[in-house]
Inverse folding.
């Protein structure tokens, strides 16, 4: 069996997750390679990119592939598409991120297992409007989302867009500055800001210490394992793509076999992606030092994955 599920009793008895437990569960959700058809290990969609920012969606997409997804689709603008295609022939790139071709997105989105919104998206008014339409479509399709970068800006500008998002939910991945902006926008009547959007939205804050916040208290955690003092541009995009692949595996693993399965899956996937990204950062830093860039981290995904989860 490719996945190991926790029984109902085991899940109900979880009170405080240890990081070593999270690592063990991550190992249990990694699918076996044998006997599978193309697509069974994940079809991931990346929505982002613009004429100014073509690297961000590439880093997110190629990381999802290198962690182990079978197919990754980048939905981007017409002028960014040929540039992103030139970076890698392994990515499927659709130039449909505009109001003229937005009608084609519904069918494409319906094929995805997990969708990442935000890398290199830009903040123009027409893109923000289209982003809200995409989120509403994903909500109706009950698609799990990872929202990062300019996707978080879109959420900040329209906080209610994720309110009561259906299971299997959303994981937000803000850095410290982005998290503070969201916290300040949450109505003051909420004592725990991350509960504003409902039970199916969780938050992974990135920084010197990564923290995972969930409305299900037993699944919260914080970690500063690995990493270095060098924070390269594009590192957050590597995390978002990795997270999408782990999120899909964790959901398919049904690791709790009860109502706790989704928050547990979000917690495990967030830990797995954060730990892997930090491990890639440290490995690359040990080679390149201050000169390390995000492309160097991509080269370390295979070795870091083997070291952490195989």
């Amino acid at each position: 069996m490719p996945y190991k599920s926790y029984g109902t009793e085991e899940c109900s008895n979880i009170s405080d997750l240890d990081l070593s437990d999270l690592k063990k569960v991550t190992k249990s959700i990694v699918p076996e390679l044998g006997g599978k058809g193309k697509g069974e290990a994940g079809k991931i969609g990346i929505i982002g990119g613009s004429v100014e920012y073509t690297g961000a969606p590439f880093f997110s997409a190629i990381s999802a592939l290198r962690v182990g997804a079978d197919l990754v689709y980048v939905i981007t603008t017409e002028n960014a598409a040929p540039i992103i295609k030139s970076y890698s022939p392994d990515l499927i790139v659709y130039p449909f991120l505009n109001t003229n071709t937005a009608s084609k997105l519904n069918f494409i989105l319906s094929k995805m297992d997990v969708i990442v919104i935000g890398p290199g998206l830009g903040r123009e008014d027409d893109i923000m409007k289209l982003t809200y339409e995409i989120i509403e479509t994903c909500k109706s399709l009950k698609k799990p989302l990872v929202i990062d970068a300019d996707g978080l800006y879109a959420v900040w500008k329209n906080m209610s867009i994720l309110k009561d998002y259906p299971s299997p939910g959303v994981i937000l991945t803000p850095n410290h500055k982005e998290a503070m902006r969201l916290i300040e926008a949450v109505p003051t009547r909420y004592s725990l800001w991350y509960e504003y959007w409902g039970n199916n939205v969780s938050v992974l804050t990135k920084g010197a210490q990564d923290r995972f916040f969930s409305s299900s208290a037993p699944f919260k955690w914080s970690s500063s394992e690995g990493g270095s003092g060098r924070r390269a541009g594009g590192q957050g995009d590597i995390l978002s793509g990795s997270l999408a692949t782990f999120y899909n595996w964790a959901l398919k693993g049904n690791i709790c076999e009860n109502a706790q399965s989704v928050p547990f899956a979000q917690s495990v996937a967030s830990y797995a992606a954060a730990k892997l990204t930090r491990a890639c950062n440290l490995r690359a830093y040990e080679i390149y030092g201050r000169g390390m860039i995000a492309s160097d981290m991509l080269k370390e995904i295979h070795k870091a994955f083997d070291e952490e989860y195989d």
